[in-house]
Amino acid sequence: MDDGIFLRSVVGEFLGTAVLILLGGGVCASVSLEKCYARGGGWIVITAGWAFAVLSGILVATSVGAPGSLNPAGTIAGLLVGGGSSAGLALSLVAAQLCGAFVGSVLVWLMYLPHWEVTESTGAKLGVFCTGPAIDRPICNFLSELIGTFALVLIAGSAGRLATGAAAATLTAAVVWAMGLSLGSATGYALNPARDLAPRLAHAVLPIAGKGGSNWRYAWVPVCGPLAGAILASVLLQVLGRLPGLPMQP
């Protein structure tokens, strides 16, 4: 791969994922932290905020020249199933996504700096950075993340075969909104290891006033569930793409 394309891909995924977490974590902070004007805005506000965060992140990433995946599960699934990129590029994109998510989390912390100390709930603070289950049953939570990510990759992947550019980004954001509304309230719908793992690490290392633990016991669920779901959906998309007579390419 040309060095310029490689650099644009890595930088774009870094910036796009940072924007994703800045806006996504930002809406969680705005709704959850005390003294914020949007305090108590509820699930509709959170799911809408994350949908627009995805749209914004994809637009930034693709404008630089990156794929706009913003999701290690999708990147790894594409490598294992589609074989469309080298292992070196895929791993570099995953690293860029994780680093971008960490930086986005730091920006959220700085954005709402005075609000951490006036918020007593340690759970509300943790929820700004990472997901957690409504009912703590790890296997069920894993299945929820698997099913949600499977649906996301299948639908967004299908849309991506029928649309390109800003239209594809808009459709992907709509799918993410649908995921949040329909499938998200069981686990907080990570659907993306970068969305959960790097912000959880940020929560662990940042000097957040009055924070509790980072719940590392649960951390494997929003990593392994999305990876499994993305791989299964990618396999299905590959199979569908080989069926005769189906318009699976734009």
3D architecture notes:
With 250 residues, the protein is mainly α. It has helices at 3-32, 43-64, 72-82, 87-111, 113-116, 122-129, 138-162, 165-183, 193-205, 221-242. The protein is built from ten helices and no strands.
The radius of gyration is: 17 Å
> What would the average pLDDT be, to the nearest integer?
94
Helix content: over 70%
- By DSSP, the count of extended strands is 0
Distance between the termini: 24 Å
Main beta sheet = none
Shape: globular
CATH superfamily: Glycerol uptake facilitator protein
Strand coverage percent: under 5%
Which architecture per CATH? Up-down Bundle
Which CATH C-level class is it? Answer: Mainly Alpha
Poorly predicted ranges (pLDDT <50, ≥5 residues)?
none
CATH topology: Glycerol uptake facilitator protein
Please indicate the count of domains: 1
How would the blueprint of this fold be written?
Layout: H1 3-32, H2 43-64, H3 72-82, H4 87-111, H5 113-116, H6 122-129, H7 138-162, H8 165-183, H9 193-205, H10 221-242
Which features would summarize this protein structure in a list?
mainly alpha
Brief sketch in words of this structure:
The chain contains 10 helices and no strands. With 250 residues, the protein is mostly helical.
